[in-house]
Amino acid sequence: MAVAVLAVLGAAATITVRAAPQVPCYFIFGDSLVDNGNNNFIVSMARANYPPYGIDFAGGPTGRFSNGLTTVDVIAKLLGFDDFIPPFSGASSQQLLSGVNFASAAAGIREETGQQLGARISFSGQVQNYQSAVQELVGILGDEDSAATHLSRCIFTVGMGSNDYLNNYFMPAFYNTGSRYTPEQYADALIADYSRHLQAMYNYGARKVALIGVGQVGCSPNELAQRSRDGVTCVNGINSAIRIFNSRLVGLVDQLNTLPGAHFTYINIYGIFDDILKSPGAHGLKVTNAGCCGVGRNNGQVTCLPFQTPCANRHEYLFWDAFHPTEAANVLVGQRTYSARLASDVHPVDIRTLARL
Fold first, then answer.
1. Active-site residue, 324 included
2. Could you report the per-residue pLDDT of 273-301, keeping only the tens digit for each?
3. What's the structural domain count of the chain?
4. How confident is the model at residue 17 (pLDDT cuts 50, 70, 90)?
5. Is 350 a catalytic residue?
6. Domain residue limits at 30
7. Burial of 148 (0-12, 13-18, 19+ CB in 10 A)
8. What is the dihedral of CA 269, 270, 271, 273, to 10 degrees?
9. Phi, psi angles (nearest 5°) of residue 130
10. Phi, psi dihedral angles at 50 (to 5 degrees)
């Protein structure tokens, strides 16, 4: 009888045990596309900790700039994490072991980017926060070698650059970079800064790093509302500048992969979005040129206001507000970031492959 009971208990234990995540930790760097609360307690207009943001998220409004999941929430689940990666601003020392999210809305590669929106944590600031987190990990794990071994197995995603165009280069009322640099010069300047900060991350143990390219900012409801004659045609002047940056980013990945033990990869968000825009119906979407929540032309002249009533058919919209994708779009992008559908989605590997290296 005892043997039978033990067998039943053993079977029950087997059923309840969950598979471990594919990697021990996941660290996130970026802007409002992936911020999940770091801007909630700083003096900034770039915040989303109010309804209807989070209307479809179990935790309600958390600071995520969407109706529900962000791309990194999707990636974390696909990597096998039980919980979402917490924001650095409220993370415990113990949570650092499995990774934190350093992203900050309105942040850019350049220090001044987004300053008209108030406080934000630029990419260099996010890297500094990561460096202090690593020092804490050294204390937790006992020595630098243990910390280095741990970090070498983690996934890092870095998505910067959107605001350097949206809230800098193409905003002449606040910034003069548009008149000081040609698109090629500006891309080169951004890549030089980006490279320096990524090298600092590498020096602090980051080895498996996915660089998320910049998407089609010229197709966002805000830019369509301001600059598109018919409200449908994407703004080519913006998108062509972004394509230059993205092509430089592919080259940067190749360059960084010459570092010992480095596994950098490029995620072609621009191409993934292009694929969705060309055949939205095949991806379950109907509305690609307007925000589900917003004001004015394309629901994009003013972004989603506190307590505004959003559209009911959110699953059919590409954009949630004037700038940010819906959960439906984030799920599509997150899935293809993790597991490439087309060879052009990534260079050289997707995140699922990166996790195995």
1. yes
2. 999 999 999 999 999 999 999 999 999 99
3. 1
4. low
5. no
6. 26-355
7. middle
8. 80
9. -65, -45
10. -145, 155
Residue range 148-165: mean pLDDT, rounded = 98
Q: Answer whether 352's CB lies under 8 Å from 78's CB.
A: yes
Provide the whole-model pTM: 0.94
**319 near 221, Cβ under 8 Å?**
yes
Q: Are 266 and 347 in contact (CB under 8 A)?
A: yes
Q: What is the CATH number of the domain that holds 212?
A: 3.40.50.1110
User: And the tokens for 210?
Assistant: 């996915």
Catalytic residue among 31, 164, 321, 345: 321
Asked, for residue 2, whether it belongs to a domain, the answer is no
Which amino acid type is present at position 204?
Answer: Y
Query: What is d(CA 316, CA 297) in angstroms, rounded to the nearest whole number?
Result: 19
- What pLDDT, in 10s, does the model give residues 46-64? 999 999 999 999 999 999 9
Please check whether residue 346 is in contact with residue 266, taking contact to mean a CB–CB distance below 8 angstroms.
yes
Please name the residue ranges forming H helices in 287-326.
Answer: none
Kindly state the helix (H) or strand (E) to which residue 266 belongs, with its residue range. strand 263-267
In a domain, 4, yes or no: no
199 vs 177: CA distance, rounded Å: 25
Instruction: Specify if 101 maps to a domain.
Output: yes
DSSP 230: S
- pLDDT class of 143 with cuts at 50, 70, 90: very high
Q: Examine residue 15 and state whether it is found in any structural domain, yes or no.
A: no
**Does residue 101 contact residue 87 with C-beta atoms inside 8 Å?**
yes
- Which residue out of 32, 104, 220, 228 is catalytically annotated? 32
Contact 320, 293 (CB under 8 A): yes
Catalytic residue among 324, 345, 347, 350: 324
Give me the helices (H) in 204-286, please: 221-227, 236-256, 269-278
Q: 213-238: per-residue pLDDT in tens?
A: 999 999 999 999 999 999 999 999 99
C-alpha 239: how far from chain center = 19
Q: What percent of the chain has pLDDT over 90?
A: 95
Residue pair 184/251 in contact by the 8 Å Cβ criterion? no
